[in-house]
Specification:
Blueprint (H helix, E strand, L loop, with lengths): L3 E8 L5 H11 L5 E9 L6 H29 L4 H7 L13 H10 L3 E5 L7 H4 L5 E6 L7 E2 L2 H7 L4 E8 L9 E8 L6 H26 L15 E2 L4 H9 L6
Helix pairs in contact: 1-7, 6-8
Length: 255
């Protein structure tokens, strides 16, 4: 059986997205899947100081101070995503933009069957989407199209959903708009923490992605996807401080 060639694109998040790869990398079935490259982009595709300002506004001073040691510990001990990839024997494919002509040529040279996006900070343009033989998959921590956009876990908790829906879907040029390939439901507590839920959904999402990729490797084709009901579509942005107050008002906490 020919191995499924997979190129991964993700962001440099040493706290939460790292949870996905802490489960994913060690469990890759190497008899079925060949990870041909891992691209780790800057978080939010913006300068570090802007990301720092964004994090401070969202977490607030106290929670930022509480989560900072975890961030520094991961960075200093080499536990970030790039280090995990190298430790697992997967090559890093570096770039400033996955839509640059240079990256497109490098991606083509890797001859991926599938590109997998895990919190990738850029929308994939048509040139990149046209590279993989079978297509591209994105994992999104929200039901689509109801929870398109940023921080879907946060918004589902604000709206007091009974669970967070993790969705794997095909990628098209429009954000979070491809057909749904697989989902799972992660139960929420009446009074929960965003930290617990994000870590849990990342870990469970990694298992779901491994299952989907293994199925594609065996069948040599992309699974049949379910079309979206666009009449239910909504698009969310990164939460403001007012949104964080709403989140806490329903009984949840950040950490």
């Amino acid at each position: 059986m020919k191995k499924l060639r997979v190129l991964i694109v993700t962001e440099d998040d040493p706290i939460y997205v790292r949870e996905f790869f802490g489960v994913f990398f060690p469990a890759v079935p190497r008899d079925l899947i060949d990870i041909v490259g891992v691209t780790v982009c800057r978080a939010f595709h913006e300068p570090l100081y802007k990301t720092g300002q964004r994090v401070l506004r969202f977490f607030g001073p106290i929670d930022t101070f509480r989560i900072l040691p975890s961030f520094l510990q991961t960075k200093l001990r080499g536990g970030d995503i790039a280090s995990l990839a190298k430790h697992s024997g997967f090559a890093l494919v570096e770039t400033e933009s996955v839509n640059s002509p240079q990256y497109i040529e490098r991606a083509k040279a890797l001859e991926p069957d599938i590109i997998v996006s895990v919190a990738a900070p850029e929308i994939f343009k048509s040139a990149l989407l046209g590279v993989p033989r079978l297509g591209s998959l994105n994992i999104h921590s929200g039901k689509i199209p109801e929870y398109r956009g940023m921080m879907p876990t946060f918004w589902q908790m604000v709206e007091q959903q009974p669970h967070v829906t993790v969705t794997i879907h095909e990628m098209v040029q429009k954000l979070d708009s491809g057909g749904v390939v697989a989902t799972l439901e992660f139960p929420l507590l009446a009074r929960d923490s965003l930290d617990r839920v994000i870590r849990g959904t990342k870990r469970e999402g990694a298992k779901l992605m491994l299952s989907v990729l293994a199925g594609i490797a065996r069948d040599e084709r992309m699974p049949v996807s379910a079309p979206l009901d666009e009449s239910r579509a909504r698009l969310f942005k990164f939460p403001t401080s007012v949104d964080v107050k709403r989140f806490k008002a329903v009984g949840h906490r950040i950490l």
